[in-house]
């Protein structure tokens, strides 16, 4: 059994999609990041970086195995299941390339854009423009790739696709018709039952990552980005 510690975030959803696609036995252990669950001693014992998601595999290498960082988790699950990574070295490297594009580009830049646009206490035009423009640039790169290839790695559906879709949910709604390659690919992914199940992980608080949370307070900001986040633990 694999326990997935997380909530309604793109990072947790990408792991949930992979677990479903790989038909691995798993359960969600809810972590409420707005309440500060990620700052408790129990969670910090799993991940000293106080970020979700984390997996705990009771049947891992040598027994109980704990892993964090989504790129590492996806690669681990792919190896464990033997699926969703090409066997050919060149094709496998391309899949790694697009996985790294997500974890180093799509994830951080989309996160900063949402932060400064929706959640920052003060709206700074420079920061909003900087990250909004970078998100648009990354979307153009992604759309070009998906206009010439069926999946990010080429003709094979891989963990790179699973990693990327959860971050595009809001943009697909807000910018319908602007990125036809991405829309074609997203529609194909959402036809997969495992993807739909994974995207619903922790859905009760989906608004926390979609830029529409009502009642967002200074205490939430302190937990996520302020004094409580940066206090020694």
TrEMBL record:
Q: Which InterPro entries match?
A: Glutathione-S-Trfase_C-like, Glutathione-S-Trfase_C_sf, Glutathione_S-Trfase, Glutathione_S-Trfase_N, GST_C, Thioredoxin-like_sf
Q: Which residues form the GST C-terminal domain?
A: 88-210
Spans through the membrane: none
* Residue span, GST N-terminal domain: 1-85
Which Pfam families does the UniProt entry name for this protein? GST_C, GST_N_2
**Protein name in the entry:** GST-like protein
Source species of the chain: Novosphingobium kunmingense
């Amino acid at each position: 059994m694999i326990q997935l510690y997380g909530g309604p975030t793109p990072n947790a959803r990408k792991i949930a999609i992979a677990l479903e696609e790989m038909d691995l036995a798993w359960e969600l252990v809810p972590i409420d990041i707005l309440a500060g669950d990620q700052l408790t001693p129990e969670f910090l014992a799993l991940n000293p970086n106080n970020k979700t998601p984390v997996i705990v595999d009771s049947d891992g290498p040598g027994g109980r195995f704990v892993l964090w960082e989504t790129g590492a988790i996806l690669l681990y699950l792919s190896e464990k299941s033997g699926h969703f990574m090409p066997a050919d070295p060149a094709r496998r490297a391309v899949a790694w390339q697009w996985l790294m594009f997500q974890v180093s580009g799509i994830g951080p830049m989309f996160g900063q854009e949402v932060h400064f646009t929706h959640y920052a206490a003060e709206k700074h035009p420079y920061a909003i423009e900087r990250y909004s423009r970078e998100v648009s640039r990354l979307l153009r790169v992604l759309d070009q790739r998906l206009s010439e290839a069926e999946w990010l790695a080429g003709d094979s559906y891989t963990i790179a696709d699973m990693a990327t879709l959860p971050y595009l949910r809001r943009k697909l709604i807000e910018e319908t018709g602007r990125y036809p390659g991405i829309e074609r690919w997203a529609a194909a992914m959402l036809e997969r039952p495992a993807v739909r199940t994974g995207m619903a992980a922790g859905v009760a608080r989906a608004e926390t990552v979609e830029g529409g949370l009502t009642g967002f307070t200074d205490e939430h900001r302190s937990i996520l980005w302020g004094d409580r986040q940066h206090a020694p633990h």
